[in-house]
C-alpha cells in the first residue's frame, strides 16, 4: 500500500485509481524496484520504461503546492495525514530504493564508490574553513588545499601559509592545471584511472531513468516557490522557506556527487542532456501542472528583464520596453531604446536618502551596447535552468556546494563554465538588487574562482562564449548605473561623467566579484592576448576607466569649516585600485618581451584617445581651476605604466609613443596639481576640509597604493619634463606651488595667492618635489632588484621593522594575480643583505618584543637615501625618525659628531630615453631661482629655512653630477627672440653659470621697501631684511645696461612659451586656441603699487657658496680650497670625509665638484678666497637688549634646574619601578622602612604616601601596608613527578588531576573526617592548597584614614577604569601597583626588643609549661580602637577574597573550627608560596625574595589577634599530647568510635607549628618559639621513622628491630635513629599496621636495599619541608637573615639556625639528623603512647590506617603544561574538537594551560548562571585566575577575577613575530623564554602588576 499512500499524500484528495497495476500496490518499495530493474534489463524494455515513468510521475509529482507543505494543517487536511514534508520524504525514499534497484541503498553507495577514479580531491568548503596555500606548488595564485591533502603532501621548505577561507573554496589537489604535480598528496598522486575497472551497465541503469525526473521535480518546486517580489524587495522569508523545504532533496543530490566519478558522470549526462530537458519542460503536454509550471518560469524570466528568444510560444513575451524593466535594468533600457529618461521608480528616493539627491544621476544611451549580452537568456538543459534558479534564490549555500561538488567531472566542468558565463549578466543584475550583497558576492566568487583559475578552460570559454566581451560589458553596465556629471575644471559646460563614490555600489564594493573575476582571467596569457589584440574591447575598457578619471573631486574650503566630512574617499581609492589598477597590472604582466610591442602600442593609442576626449569633455586648455584637486587619474596612470613597460622591457622607442608637445603640456598639469596639493595639505591650507583630506594625501602615498598612484604620476611628470622646454617646466612647477612671488632678490614682496605663513612650507614643497623628480629612478633605469633594495632600505631607515610589516610596507607589484609574490626569493636575499636580525628580548615586566630587522652599518653609510624616505613616508614624523637614526649612527660610529644634513646619494645611471630630464638642471630659469635663493639665505630674508638651503644645494650638486661633458656649450641664444633671463646668465650650463658674476639686478618692489629710499644704483641691500617679488607684467623690459639682470617674471615666461608651442602645433590645425588669462589668479582688492629698483649684487653662485660657508661656520675666511694643500684630491675625488656631515660639508663638497668640472671654476674659487672678506663689525648691544639677554639667561638657568630635578625624580621613580617589577632579585635598591632588622628599641616609623607625614602606627591613627589579596591555587598544582605534564594533543592523552597536591590533600581530609571527630580533623591539616589567600605588598604605607579619603576621590573620578573601586580596588598612590586592601601595621617596635631575643637559660621543661600557660589565657579582643576595627575589616577582606567552598570544610557549616583552620592556613599558604618563589629551598639564603616588601609580620599579627579569640579547650590541645604522658590510656576507647580524636602521628606538623605560634600572645619570645620547634621536631622525626618502617619489607624490619634493640641501653639511645626505629617497629608490630601485607602489597615495596646512608637521606628529606617553613617563619618574626648554603648541607644549616642543633654537634663529620632531637619526656614512653593510638585505630581499619600515615613530602615546583614545539599540532587537534558540553565545534575554542581543560570562549551554549565557560573554569581551576590559549588566535588570555587581559603569544614564527588571529598563517614555534616569563608571572602572582591593559569581562568569556 505504500505506493498508494504516497500517491495519496502527493495528489491531495485521493482520486479513484483504476489504472494502477495491482501488483505495484501490494508489493513494498524494494520489491517494486527489483521488479522494475529486471524489466528494464530485458532487451526490449519499453514496457518497463513506461511503468517506471508512470510510477515516477506519481511519486514525484509537484502538483501539491509548496505553500501547503509549509502550512501544516492544510497539508494534513489535503493529504489525509502525513504532515508537512512527509510526501517529500516518501518520494526521497522511493528514489533511493529505485536507484538501488531493490537492494539496500547503503550497499549500492558502496558499490558505486568502488568505481571512483579519484584523481582529484575537489573537497568543497564554505566560509571560515581552514585551508592551506602553497606558493611554491601553485601555478594559479588562487590554488588552495584542504588540511588533509596538505599534510599528506610534502611541503617542507615551501612558502606556504594557512588561511581561513573568506568566501569558501575547493581543494585543488590532483588538478595539474592549477598546481604542480610534485605538491599532490599521496592519495591523488597516482593517475588511477587506468586500474579502475569498467562500471557494470546495470549498476547505474536505474539512476539514468530516475534522476531526470527527480531533477525536474526539484526545478518545478523552485519555479512553484518563487513569487516575484511585489515592491522591488525580495521577500527573503518566502525564499528561505522554500529552500528549507527543499533541503533534503538538495542534500540527496549532494550525497550522490560524493559517491565518486561513476555517479558524477551519470549526473553530468542528466544535467546537460538537452533532449530530456525539452521533453519534460516544454510545457506543451496536456498535463496542466506542467503548463502552469512553465508559465511561472516565463514570468520569472520576464520579470528579470530577460527575454526568451523564441516568441513562437503561446505566451510569447515582447521585448520589455524601458518603462517595464525593473530595478536591475534601469540605466540601460530595453531594446525599445527610449534612452536617457529617468525611470520613476523609487530609485530617486534612495538617492535623496544618501544626501545626493541634488546631483542627478546621468544615464548614458545604451544603444551602442550589445543588447543580447544583457537581456537575452535561453535555457536548453537542466543545468542551465538550475543555475538560473540558484541565482534567482541568491545562491543558497547548499545549491552552490552541489554545483561545485560536480566539478571534478571534466565534461561537467566545461558545460557548467559555459552556463555560468551565459548567466553572467543576470548574476550581476541580481547582485545589484540583492540586500545581502556581501554573502552573495562571496558565493559568486566561490564558484567563479574554481572556473576561471584554470587557463585551459578560461581560454576555451573566451573563444566560444565571448567571455571578455561579456565581462567588460557587464562591468560597464554596472558602473553606468551610478554616474554623475563631473565638476572638474568647467563646472557648467563639462560633458564628462564620473562614478558617484557615495553610491552603495561603490561604498559597499558590490562590484568586487566581477572585477575579481576579470583580474583572474587576465592573469592567463592566452586570454590577456586576446584582450590586448581586440581594439573594440580596448576602446570599451578605456571608456570604463574614464568613468573613474577625476572622481571624488575635492574643493578647498576657504571660509567655513566643512560641516560634514564625507568618507567617500575610501570607496574612491578602493575603486581605482581594484577596478583600474589591478587589471592594469594584470595586463602589464603579459607585456614583458619585445614581441609584445604591438599590445603596448594599442593600449597607448586608445589611452591617449580617451585622454584627449577627457580634456575636451572638461573643456581644458592650460590653466587648471584653482582650489580643486582629484587624486584619481587612472587614464594618466595607464598611459604612464605602459610607457614605462615599453621602454624597460619591450625596447620601444619612447618618442614613437609620445604625443605632441601640446598634449604633453596638458598631461603634466593634473599630476603636477596633485603634487602641489600634497604640499598645500601638509602646509595646513586645506584644514577647513576636515581630516579626510589628510587621509587622502596619506592613502595616495601609502604602501598598497603608491605604485599605482604617486609612482606613475611622478614618472609621467619625468617623461613630460624630459620632452618639454625646461624653462617652461620649471616655471610651471613654481607657479603651481604658488611661490613665484617669493623668488625675488628684493627683501619684501607681495604674494597674491598665498598667505605668508604658508610660504615657507610651500617653497620647501616645491624644491623637494624638484629633487624627487630629478633624483628618482624607479622607472628610469633601475632593475627590479635595485628597486626592491631601495624600498627596503627606505623602510628600515625610518624604523626597525618586523618581517611581516616589511612585506606589507614594500610595494610589490600590487596585482595579486601577477605571480610576483612578496616573500619571493629575492626578498629574503635582499633582506639579509641590507639588514641584521635582532632577536626578541625579554625584560620581566617589560613589553613583549618581536623579532626586528635593523639596517646594517654599511647601509647607513652608503645607501641611506633621504629622497626615497621622503617619497615613501605616510607620516612626516617618519622622515624625522630616519634622520634621528642616521644621526645616532654617525655619532656612534664616530663619523660625524654634530647634526648632520641628509646625505647626498649617487644615483643609478639614467636610461638613455630619459636623458632629456637632466636639461631641467641646466636651464637658466632654475639657475636664477637657485641664485636668488642662495642670495636671500645669505641675506637672512624671511621665510627661508635650513631645509630650503639643503634642497638648493642638493639641486646644485645634482646639476654638477649631471653636467654635459664639454664645458664649451655656451650656445648662442639664437633660438627665438631675446628673453629676459638671458640678461642673467649667458649660457645654460650650470658649471659655467656658477662662475658668472651678476652685478646689478633690477627688481620690482613695493614702494614701502627699504631698497626704494636709497640711490637706486649704489644700494647694496646688505642690511635689508629680504623677501621676494614677481611682477605680473607680461611686458619684458629691454636691457637698459648690459650689466643689469632684468626683472624676471616666471609666469610671463611660461605663458609665452606655451603660446609659442600652441602656435607651432596649431598652425596646421587651424583652430583658435583661447589662452586662458590668469584672471582667476588676480589677488582680491587692488594690487599694491610696485616700483622698479636696481640692486647691486656683484656675486656669482660660487662666491655666494663661499660666503655661505663662512656664515655657516661662523668664522671669517673659513673656506680654504683643499687642493692647494693636497693636489691628489683633484685626481681621486671620492673622499669619504665628505660623505656625511652638515651644511659646511655640503658646501665644501659642491665647491670641490665645481673645481673638478672646470679649471676656470677652480681658478675663480681660489681668487675669491684670496680676496680677504672684510670682517663684520661686532654688534653693539643696547641696554634693552642686554636686559632681554639677562632675562633669557635666567630663564635658561631655571629651565636647567627644572630639568635636573625632573631627571632626578625620573631616576628615582625608575629605580623604584625596577625593584617593584623585578620578581626574582633580592631587593637592595631602596630600603623601605618596614621590617629592617635594627637592634634598637626605637618604634617603627612609617611614611604615608598620601599625606607625606612620617610617624609610628598608633591605636587611634593606624598606618597600613598597601596590599593585594588574591585567591591562588598555584600550590595545589604542585605534582609529585619531575616530568612536567604535556598539553594533550591526541584523544589518548588525557590529564587527570589525581596526583596534584590539592587533590591529595582533599582526599586526606575527607578520609580523616570519615573516622574522626570533625573539630579534631580540622586541626590536623592545612587547607588553602586551592583557593588559598596570598597577600603581597608593594611596600608602601599610608594612614588608613588617608586611604579612605583616597578611595572616596577615586569613586567620584569617572576616568579611571580598568579596576573596580566598588570592590575596594585601587592603585598604590606612589608606584601605581594594583592593590585591593590595606593591612594595618601593629604598633610597637620594628623588631621585638632585644629582651625577647636573648636566649634564656631556662630548661626546656620550664619553657613547655610557660607555653602551655600562655596558650591557656583567653585572648580578649582589645578595646574598640580604630586599629582593632581595621584588623577586623582586613580579616573580612581576606575571607571574602576566596570563594566559600575554599573556606568551609567542616561538616557543620559555620562552625568556629572552620575559621580557625582558615586563618592558620592563610599563614601556611603565604609561607609555602614564598618558598616556591625561592625555588623550593632556602639554599640561596639572604633576605626574602620579596625583600623588605614582605608583609608576613603584619599578617601574623592580624591572624594571631583573631585566632586568640578561639581558645582550644585545654583537654584537646595537641600541646599536651606532645609534652605529657597520659596515664589512663584505656579510658580513651569509648563506645562511640566516631568521636575519636585524630591520632597525633596523623597530624600535619607544619599545621601544628602554626597553630601553636598563632595561639601565643604576640609579640612572641624567641625561646618560646625555639621550644615549640624542638617539641614538634620530635613528633616529626617519629613520623619519619614510622613512614620508613612501612616502606620497607618484613625481613628488613626484623633485622632493624634486632640491631636497634642491642643498642637500646647506650647513653645516646634517644638520639640514635637505629634504636628509635627498632622501638617504633616493635611498638607498631603489636597492632595490625604491618599485617595487611598479603600478596597485593608486595608489589609496592621498593626493592632497594636500605643502607645507613640512604636511610639518613630519607629521614632528612622527610624533615626538610618543615625546617624550611619554620626557618622562613623565624626570619619574618624575628628578622634574622637566612644563611646560604649548598643543597647537601641545607638540613644541618637550617637545624642549627633554628637552635635544634647544639653547637658542639656541628663539628661531627658524618652528620646525623637524630642528633637534633631533644625529647621533653622520655622518648620511649611518649613514642609508645603515640603508637598505641595508631594501633587502636588499625584494629578496625587497617587499610585506612596505613593510607593516613604522613608520607614524605614529594612535591615538585608547580609548572604550566608543557607545550609542543610546533603550533600546528595544537591547532589541528583543537580547532575541530567538539565541546564536551554541547558537542558542537566552538567558534572560539580555548584550552587552559594549567590543567589542559578544553573550553569555549564566549560560548553561550556552555553558560551556567550567566557565567561563560572560561570565567567559570578560571574560578574552579585557579580560584579566579585563568590562563587560556585561544586556539584560533594563538594568543594567551589571562582572567583575573572580574578582569581580563590579552597577554600575548608564546608562539612566534621564524622571524620572531607573533601572528595574532593567525592572519598570516605561517608556521609558529614555541618561544621558550616567553613561556617561562608567563609561568613566572603565574607562580609569582604578578599578572596584575606587569600587564597593563586590563578590562572587565562581565562574565562573558
What does this structure look like?
The chain has 1901 residues and is α+β, with helices and mostly antiparallel strands. It is built from 74 helices and 29 strands. A six-stranded antiparallel beta sheet has the order 23-22-24-25-26-29. The radius of gyration is 46 Å and the shape is flat. The relative contact order is 0.04.
Précis, in short:
The chain has 74 helices and 29 strands. The protein is α+β, with helices and mostly antiparallel strands. The strands form eleven sheets. A six-stranded antiparallel beta sheet has the order 23-22-24-25-26-29.
Question: Radius of gyration from the CA trace?
Answer: 46 Å
Low-confidence stretches: 1-27, 63-84, 310-358, 814-823, 966-978, 1013-1042, 1066-1087, 1174-1182, 1219-1241, 1390-1396, 1529-1538, 1638-1645
Shape: flat
Question: Roughly what is the average pLDDT, rounded to an integer?
Answer: 79
List keywords for this structure.
6% strand; three-stranded antiparallel sheet; 1901 residues; disordered N terminus; flat; alpha+beta; six-stranded antiparallel sheet
Topology:
Blueprint: H1 2-11, H2 22-26, H3 29-41, H4 46-59, H5 66-70, H6 72-79, H7 86-100, H8 105-113, E1 124-125, E2 130-134, E3 145-146, H9 147-152, E4 160-164, E5 169-170, H10 186-189, H11 205-225, H12 236-257, H13 261-272, H14 274-281, H15 288-303, H16 347-353, H17 371-375, H18 382-392, H19 397-405, H20 410-422, H21 424-433, H22 437-452, H23 455-465, H24 467-480, E6 483-485, E7 497-499, H25 504-507, H26 512-522, H27 525-533, H28 535-546, E8 554-555, H29 568-588, H30 597-617, E9 628-629, H31 634-649, H32 661-682, H33 691-701, H34 710-723, H35 726-736, H36 756-775, H37 784-798, H38 803-809, H39 825-834, E10 835-838, E11 852-855, H40 857-863, H41 866-872, H42 876-893, H43 924-938, H44 946-961, H45 990-993, E12 998-1006, H46 1010-1013, E13 1044-1045, H47 1050-1066, E14 1090-1099, H48 1101-1113, H49 1128-1131, H50 1143-1157, H51 1159-1170, H52 1183-1221, E15 1246-1247, E16 1254-1255, E17 1263-1272, H53 1301-1315, H54 1318-1324, E18 1332-1343, H55 1344-1356, E19 1370-1371, E20 1378-1379, E21 1381-1384, H56 1394-1397, H57 1404-1416, H58 1426-1441, H59 1456-1477, ...
Parallel strand pairs: 12-13
Antiparallel strand pairs: 1-5, 2-3, 2-4, 6-7, 8-9, 10-11, 12-14, 15-16, 17-18, 17-21, 19-20, 22-23, 22-24, 24-25, 25-26, 26-29, 27-28
Amino acid at each position: 500500500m505504500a505506493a498508494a499512500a504516497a500517491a495519496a499524500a502527493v495528489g491531495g484528495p485521493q482520486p479513484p485509481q483504476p489504472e494502477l497495476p495491482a501488483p505495484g500496490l501490494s508489493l513494498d518499495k524494494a520489491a517494486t524496484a527489483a521488479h522494475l530493474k529486471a524489466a528494464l534489463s530485458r532487451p526490449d524494455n519499453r514496457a518497463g520504461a513506461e511503468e517506471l515513468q508512470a510510477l515516477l510521475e506519481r511519486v514525484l509529482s509537484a502538483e501539491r503546492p509548496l505553500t501547503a507543505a509549509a502550512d501544516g494543517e492544510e497539508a494534513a487536511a489535503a493529504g489525509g495525514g502525513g504532515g508537512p514534508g512527509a510526501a517529500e520524504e516518501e518520494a526521497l525514499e522511493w528514489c533511493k530504493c529505485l536507484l538501488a534497484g531493490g537492494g539496500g541503498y547503503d550497499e549500492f553507495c558502496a558499490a558505486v564508490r568502488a568505481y571512483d577514479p579519484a584523481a582529484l580531491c575537489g573537497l568543497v568548503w564554505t566560509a571560515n574553513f581552514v585551508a592551506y596555500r602553497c606558493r611554491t606548488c601553485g601555478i594559479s595564485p588562487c590554488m588552495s588545499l584542504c588540511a588533509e591533502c596538505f599534510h599528506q603532501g610534502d611541503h617542507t621548505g615551501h612558502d606556504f601559509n594557512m588561511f581561513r577561507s573568506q568566501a569558501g573554496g575547493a581543494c585543488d589537489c590532483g588538478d595539474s592545471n592549477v598546481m604542480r604535480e610534485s605538491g599532490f598528496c599521496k592519495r591523488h598522486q597516482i593517475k588511477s584511472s587506468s586500474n579502475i575497472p569498467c562500471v557494470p551497465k546495470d549498476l547505474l541503469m536505474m539512476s539514468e531513468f530516475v534522476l531526470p525526473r527527480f531533477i525536474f521535480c526539484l526545478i518545478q518546486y523552485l519555479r512553484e516557490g518563487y513569487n516575484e517580489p511585489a515592491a522591488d524587495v525580495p521577500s527573503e522569508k518566502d525564499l528561505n522557506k522554500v529552500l528549507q523545504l527543499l533541503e533534503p532533496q538538495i542534500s540527496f543530490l549532494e550525497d550522490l556527487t560524493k559517491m565518486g566519478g561513476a555517479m558524477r558522470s551519470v549526473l553530468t549526462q542528466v544535467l546537460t542532456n538537452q533532449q530530456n530537458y525539452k521533453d519534460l519542460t516544454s510545457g506543451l503536454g496536456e498535463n496542466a501542472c506542467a503548463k502552469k509550471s512553465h508559465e511561472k518560469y516565463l514570468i520569472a524570466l520576464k520579470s528579470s528583464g530577460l527575454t526568451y528568444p523564441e516568441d513562437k510560444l503561446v505566451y510569447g513575451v515582447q521585448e520589455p520596453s524601458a518603462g517595464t524593466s525593473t530595478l536591475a535594468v534601469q540605466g540601460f533600457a530595453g531594446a525599445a531604446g527610449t534612452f536617457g529618461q529617468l525611470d520613476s521608480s523609487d530609485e530617486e528616493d534612495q538617492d535623496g536618502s544618501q544626501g545626493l539627491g541634488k546631483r542627478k544621476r546621468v544615464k548614458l544611451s545604451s544603444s551602442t551596447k550589445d543588447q543580447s549580452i544583457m537581456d537575452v537568456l535561453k535555457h536548453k538543459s537542466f543545468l542551465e535552468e538550475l543555475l538560473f534558479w540558484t541565482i534567482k534564490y541568491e545562491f543558497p549555500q547548499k545549491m552552490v556546494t552541489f554545483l561545485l561538488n560536480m566539478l571534478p567531472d571534466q565534461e561537467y566542468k566545461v558545460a557548467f563554465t559555459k552556463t555560468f558565463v551565459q548567466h553572467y549578466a543576470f548574476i550581476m543584475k541580481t547582485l545589484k538588487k540583492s540586500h545581502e550583497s556581501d554573502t552573495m558576492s562571496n558565493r559568486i566568487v566561490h564558484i567563479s574562482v574554481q572556473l576561471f583559475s584554470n587557463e585551459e578552460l578560461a581560454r576555451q570559454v573566451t573563444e566560444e562564449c565571448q567571455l571578455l566581451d561579456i565581462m567588460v560589458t557587464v562591468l560597464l553596465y554596472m558602473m553606468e548605473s551610478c554616474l554623475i556629471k563631473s565638476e572638474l575644471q568647467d563646472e557648467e559646460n563639462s560633458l564628462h561623467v564620473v562614478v558617484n563614490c557615495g553610491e552603495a555600489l561603490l561604498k559597499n564594493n558590490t562590484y568586487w566579484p566581477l572585477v575579481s573575476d576579470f583580474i583572474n582571467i587576465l592573469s592567463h596569457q592566452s586570454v590577456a592576448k586576446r584582450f590586448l589584440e581586440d581594439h573594440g574591447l580596448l576602446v570599451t575598457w578605456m571608456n570604463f576607466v574614464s568613468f573613474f578619471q577625476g572622481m571624488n573631486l575635492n574643493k578647498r574650503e576657504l571660509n567655513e569649516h566643512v560641516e560634514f566630512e564625507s568618507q567617500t574617499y575610501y570607496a574612491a581609492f578602493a575603486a581605482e585600485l581594484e577596478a583600474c589598477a589591478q587589471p592594469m597590472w594584470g595586463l602589464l604582466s603579459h607585456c614583458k618581451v619585445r614581441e609584445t610591442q604591438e599590445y603596448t602600442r594599442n593600449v597607448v593609442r586608445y589611452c591617449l584617445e580617451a585622454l584627449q576626449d577627457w580634456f575636451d569633455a572638461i573643456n581644458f586648455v592650460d590653466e587648471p581651476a584653482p582650489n580643486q584637486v582629484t587624486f584619481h587619474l587612472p587614464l594618466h596612470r595607464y598611459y604612464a605604466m605602459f610607457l614605462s613597460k615599453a621602454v624597460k622591457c619591450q625596447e620601444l622607442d619612447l618618442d614613437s609613443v609620445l604625443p605632441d608637445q601640446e598634449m604633453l603640456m596638458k598631461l603634466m598639469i593634473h599630476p603636477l596639481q596633485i603634487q602641489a596639493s600634497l604640499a598645500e595639505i601638509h602646509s595646513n591650507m586645506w584644514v577647513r576640509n576636515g581630516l579626510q583630506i589628510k587621509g587622502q594625501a596619506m592613502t595616495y602615498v601609502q604602501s598598497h597604493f603608491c605604485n599605482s598612484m604617486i609612482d606613475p604620476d611622478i614618472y609621467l611628470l619625468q617623461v613630460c619634463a624630459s620632452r618639454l622646454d625646461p624653462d617652461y617646466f620649471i616655471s610651471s612647477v613654481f607657479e603651481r606651488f604658488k611661490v613665484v612671488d617669493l623668488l625675488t632678490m628684493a627683501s619684501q614682496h607681495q604674494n597674491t595667492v598665498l598667505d605668508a605663513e604658508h610660504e615657507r612650507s610651500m617653497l620647501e614643497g616645491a624644491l623637494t618635489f624638484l629633487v624627487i623628480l630629478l633624483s628618482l629612478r624607479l622607472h628610469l633605469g633601475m632593475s627590479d632588484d635595485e628597486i626592491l633594495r631601495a624600498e627596503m632600505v627606505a623602510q628600515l631607515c625610518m624604523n626597525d621593522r618586523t618581517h611581516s610589516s616589511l612585506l606589507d610596507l614594500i610595494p610589490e607589484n600590487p596585482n595579486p594575480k601577477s605571480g610576483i609574490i612578496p616573500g619571493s626569493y629575492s626578498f629574503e636575499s635582499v633582506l639579509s643583505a641590507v639588514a641584521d636580525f635582532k632577536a626578541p628580548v625579554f625584560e620581566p615586566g617589560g613589553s613583549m618584543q618581536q623579532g626586528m630587522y635593523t639596517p646594517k652599518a654599511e647601509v647607513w653609510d652608503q645607501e641611506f637615501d633621504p629622497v626615497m624616505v621622503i617619497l615613501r613616508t605616510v607620516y612626516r614624523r617618519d622622515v624625522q625618525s630616519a634622520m634621528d637614526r642616521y644621526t645616532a649612527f654617525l655619532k656612534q660610529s664616530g663619523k660625524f659628531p654634530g647634526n648632520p644634513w641628509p646625505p647626498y646619494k649617487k644615483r643609478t645611471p639614467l636610461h638613455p630615453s630619459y636623458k632629456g630630464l637632466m636639461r631641467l638642471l641646466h636651464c637658466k630659469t632654475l639657475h636664477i631661482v637657485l641664485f636668488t635663493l642662495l642670495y636671500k639665505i645669505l641675506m637672512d630674508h624671511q621665510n627661508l629655512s635650513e631645509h630650503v638651503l639643503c634642497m638648493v644645494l642638493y639641486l646644485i650638486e645634482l646639476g654638477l653630477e649631471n653636467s654635459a661633458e664639454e664645458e664649451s656649450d655656451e650656445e648662442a641664444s639664437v633660438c627665438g627672440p631675446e628673453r629676459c633671463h638671458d640678461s642673467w646668465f649667458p649660457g645654460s650650463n650650470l658649471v659655467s653659470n656658477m662662475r658668472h658674476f651678476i652685478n646689478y639686478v633690477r627688481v620690482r618692489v613695493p614702494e614701502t621697501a627699504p631698497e626704494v629710499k636709497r640711490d637706486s644704483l649704489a644700494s647694496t641691500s646688505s642690511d635689508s631684511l629680504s623677501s621676494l617679488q614677481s611682477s605680473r607684467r607680461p611686458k619684458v623690459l629691454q636691457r637698459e645696461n648690459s650689466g643689469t639682470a632684468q626683472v624676471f617674471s616666471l609666469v610671463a615666461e611660461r605663458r609665452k612659451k606655451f603660446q609659442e608651442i600652441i602656435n607651432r602645433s596649431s598652425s596646421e590645425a587651424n583652430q583658435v586656441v583661447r589662452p586662458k588669462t590668469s584672471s582667476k589668479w588676480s589677488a582680491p582688492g587692488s594690487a599694491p603699487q610696485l616700483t622698479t629698483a636696481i640692486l647691486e649684487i656683484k656675486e656669482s653662485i660660487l662666491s655666494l657658496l663661499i660666503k655661505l660657508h663662512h656664515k655657516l661656520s661662523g668664522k671669517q675666511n673659513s673656506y680654504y680650497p683643499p687642493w692647494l694643500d693636497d693636489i691628489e684630491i683633484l685626481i681621486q675625488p671620492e673622499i669619504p670625509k665628505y660623505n656625511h656631515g652638515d651644511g659646511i660639508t655640503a658646501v665644501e663638497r659642491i665647491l670641490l665638484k665645481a673645481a673638478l668640472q672646470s679649471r676656470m671654476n677652480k681658478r675663480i674659487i681660489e681668487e675669491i678666497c684670496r680676496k680677504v672678506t672684510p670682517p663684520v663689525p661686532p654688534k653693539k648691544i643696547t641696554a634693552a637688549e642686554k636686559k632681554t639677554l639677562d632675562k633669557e639667561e635666567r630663564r635658561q638657568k631655571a629651565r636647567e634646574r627644572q630639568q635636573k630635578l625632573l631627571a632626578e625624580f625620573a631616576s628615582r621613580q625608575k629605580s623604584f619601578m625596577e625593584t617593584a617589577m623585578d620578581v626574582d632579585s633580592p631587593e637592595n635598591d631602596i630600603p623601605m622602612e618596614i621590617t629592617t632588622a635594627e637592634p634598637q628599641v626605637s618604634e617603627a616609623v612609617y611614611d604615608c604616601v598620601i599625606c607625606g607625614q612620617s610617624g609610628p602606627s598608633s591605636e587611634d591613627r593606624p598606618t597600613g601596608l598597601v596590599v593585594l589579596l588574591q585567591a591562588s591555587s598555584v600550590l595545589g598544582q604542585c605534582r609529585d613527578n619531575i616530568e612536567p605534564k604535556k598539553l594533550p594533543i591526541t584523544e589518548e592523552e588525557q590529564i587527570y588531576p589525581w596526583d596534584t597536591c590539592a587533590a591529595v590533600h582533599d582526599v586526606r581530609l575527607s578520609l580523616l573526617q570519615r573516622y574522626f571527630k570533625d573539630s579534631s580533623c580540622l586541626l590536623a591539616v592545612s587547607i588553602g592548597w586551592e583557593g588559598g589567600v596570598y597577600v603581597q605588598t608593594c611596600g608602601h604605607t599610608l594612614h588608613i584614614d588617608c586611604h579612605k579619603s583616597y578611595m572616596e576621590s577615586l569613586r567620584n573620578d569617572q576616568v579611571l577604569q580598568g579596576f573596580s573601586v566598588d570592590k575596594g580596588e585601587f592603585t598604590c598612590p606612589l608606584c601605581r601597583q594594583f592593590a585591593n586592601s590595606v593591612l594595618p601595621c601593629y604598633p610597637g617596635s620594628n623588631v621585638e626588643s632585644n629582651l625577647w631575643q636573648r636566649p634564656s637559660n631556662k630548661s626546656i621543661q620550664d619553657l613547655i609549661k610557660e607555653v602551655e600557660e600562655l596558650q591557656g589565657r583567653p585572648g580578649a579582643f582589645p578595646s574598640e580602637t580604630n586599629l582593632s576595627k581595621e584588623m577586623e575589616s582586613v580579616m573580612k577582606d581576606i575571607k571574602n577574597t576566596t570563594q566559600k567552598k575554599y573556606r568551609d570544610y567542616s561538616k557543620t557549616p559555620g562552625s568556629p573550627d572552620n575559621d580557625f583552620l582558615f586563618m592558620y592556613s592563610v599563614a601556611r599558604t603565604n609561607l609555602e608560596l614564598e618558598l616556591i618563589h625561592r625555588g623550593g629551598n632556602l639554599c640561596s639564603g639572604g633576605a626574602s625574595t620579596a625583600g623588605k616588601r614582605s608583609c608576613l609580620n603584619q599578617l601574623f599579627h592580624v591572624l594571631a589577634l583573631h585566632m586568640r579569640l578561639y581558645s582550644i579547650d585545654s583537654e584537646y590541645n595537641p600541646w599536651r599530647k606532645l609534652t605529657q604522658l597520659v596515664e589512663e590510656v584505656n579510658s580513651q576507647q569509648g563506645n562511640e568510635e566516631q568521636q575519636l580524636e585524630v591520632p597525633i602521628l596523623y597530624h600535619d606538623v607544619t599545621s601544628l607549628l602554626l597553630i601553636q605560634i598563632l595561639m601565643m600572645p604576640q609579640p612572641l619570645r624567641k625561646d618560646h618559639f625555639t621550644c615549640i620547634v624542638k617539641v614538634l621536631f620530635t613528633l616529626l622525626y617519629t613520623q619519619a621513622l614510622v613512614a620508613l618502617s612501612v616502606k620497607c619489607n618484613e625481613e628488613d624490619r626484623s633485622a632493624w628491630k634486632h640491631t636497634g634493640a642491642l643498642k637500646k641501653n647506650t647513653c645516646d639511645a634517644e638520639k640514635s635513629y637505629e634504636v628509635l626505629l627498632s622501638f617504633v617497629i616493635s611498638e607498631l608490630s603489636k597492632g595490625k599496621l604491618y599485617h595487611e601485607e598479603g600478596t597485593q602489597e608486595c608489589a609496592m615495596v621498593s626493592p632497594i636495599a636500605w643502607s645507613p646512608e640512604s636511610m639518613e637521606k630519607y629521614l632528612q628529606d622527610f624533615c626538610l619541608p618543615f625546617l624550611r617553613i619554620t626557618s622562613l617563619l623565624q626570619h619574618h618574626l624575628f628578622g634574622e637573615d637566612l644563611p646560604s648554603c649548598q643543597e647537601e648541607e641545607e638540613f644541618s644549616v637550617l637545624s642549627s639556625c633554628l637552635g635544634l642543633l647544639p653547637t658542639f654537634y656541628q663539628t661531627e663529620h658524618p652528620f646525623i639528623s637524630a642528633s637534633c632531637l631533644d625529647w621533653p619526656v622520655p622518648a620511649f614512653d611518649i613514642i609508645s603512647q603515640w603508637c598505641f593510638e595508631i594501633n587502636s585505630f588499625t584494629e578496625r581499619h587497617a587499610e585506612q590506617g596505613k593510607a593516613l600515615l604522613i608520607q614524605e613530602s614529594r612535591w615538585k615546583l608547580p609548572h604550566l603544561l608543557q607545550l609542543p614545539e610546533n603550533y600546528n599540532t595544537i591547532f589541528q587537534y583543537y580547532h575541530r574538537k567538539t565541546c564536551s558540553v554541547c558537542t558542537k565545534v566552538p567558534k572560539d575554542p580555548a584550552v587552559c594551560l594549567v590543567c589542559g581543560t578544553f573550553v569555549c570562549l564566549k560560548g553561550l551554549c556552555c553558560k551556567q548562571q550567566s557565567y561563560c565557560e572560561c570565567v567559570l573554569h578560571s574560578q574552579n581551576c585557579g580560584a579566579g585566575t585563568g590562563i587560556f590559549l585561544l586556539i584560533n588566535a594563538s594568543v594567551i588570555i589571562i582572567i583575573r577575577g572580574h578582569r581580563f587581559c590579552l597577554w600575548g603569544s608564546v608562539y612566534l614564527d621564524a622571524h620572531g613575530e607573533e601572528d595574532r588571529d593567525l592572519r598570516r598563517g605561517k608556521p609558529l614555534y614555541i618561544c621558550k623564554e616567553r613561556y617561562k616569563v608567563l609561568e613566572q608571572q603565574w607562580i609569582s602572582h604578578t599578572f596584575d602588576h606587569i600587564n597593563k591593559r586590563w578590562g572587565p569581562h562581565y562574565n562573558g568569556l
